[in-house]
Write the structure tokens for this entry.
Amino acid sequence: AKLVAKDFGKNKVYYPDQKKIPGRSSEESSKTASETARLTATKADLEASVRTLMLEAQKARQTPTDEDLEKEITTLQNDIATTEKAVLSLRAASSKGPQVPPETVKKVQKALDKAQKRYRLYKRACQDVLMSLNMSDKQAADTFGYICH
């Protein structure tokens, strides 16, 4: 293509002669427009997929790991065992007569209630994890070796 010079004060600007460049046909223009529309739709689909994957990744990061659940199970089992021992000793003492002050009974009952509440929360979390994995209690027992009961 031939270069054309145009003066702008002291400056000269060179650009290709537009008359020598072949024009685009309407067929090429419509092809380009349809290709642009197709690529725009593909881009929108991919962005939606990325958003979905980001949400799934965020949900996966918030789900407790097996190690976290095992620690929680152990803690809850220890809390329940300790509370049961305390309750059994209080029952044995109360059958002999009023040897335990009422404040202690309330304290132990409060600890028992707290342990039971934590166990219910663990059980709910465990069921949520199994539901997100589409597993039954039996499948979890076979796969992981424990049941959420």
